[in-house]
Write a structure and sequence with these properties.
InterPro entries: NTF2-like_dom_sf, YchJ-like_M. Pfam families: YchJ_M-like (PF17775). It comes from Nocardia aurea. This is YchJ family metal-binding protein. The protein is an alpha+beta fold and 129 residues long. The protein has a single domain, classed as Nuclear Transport Factor 2, Chain: A. It is built from 3 helices and 4 strands. Strands 1-2-3-4 form a 4-stranded antiparallel β-sheet, covered by helices on one side. β1 and β2 form a beta hairpin. It is globular. The model has no long low-confidence stretch (mean pLDDT 95).
């Protein structure tokens, strides 16, 4: 990804100022929503290592394998509950749009986040119809 590219999370900032430093481990996500955005960005740029690192340790899979044929197009945040700088838990509902095998699709999920050792991590999610 070049410096002039906008971040896939669609906050309207360049990647190197938005999710790039979070994926690189240079700083943590300050909120549950920021972590959700960084995880979407990791899917979009193919960073399975970051996805694994940002998973709660009690639920972290041994390996995260990404579908190289799936192209993540854009992210919509539907709602956010808690998950701020002074919270320990949060919920983010989102719709992630993708294209796979020439067909458009979307993933609608309500995700739970928590702090682990002071950092926001993904706990789990429920996929909505």
């Amino acid at each position: 990804m070049t410096q002039s590219q906008w971040c896939p999370c669609r906050r309207g900032e360049p990647f190197e100022e938005c999710c790039g430093p979070v994926l690189a481990g240079e700083r943590g996500a300050p909120t549950a929503e920021a972590l959700m955005r960084s995880r979407y960005t990791a899917f979009a740029v193919g960073d399975g290592d970051y996805l694994r690192r940002s998973w709660h340790s009690s639920r972290r899979p041994p390996v995260v394998e990404l579908d190289g044929d799936q192209r993540w197009m854009f992210l919509e945040i539907v709602r956010v509950e808690r998950g701020g700088p002074f919270d320990d838990t949060g919920v983010v509902e989102f719709v992630a749009h993708y294209r796979a095998d020439g067909v458009r699709g979307s993933l609608h999920e309500v995700s739970r986040f928590a702090r682990e050792d002071g950092a926001w991590v993904y706990v789990d999610g429920v996929i909505e119809p």
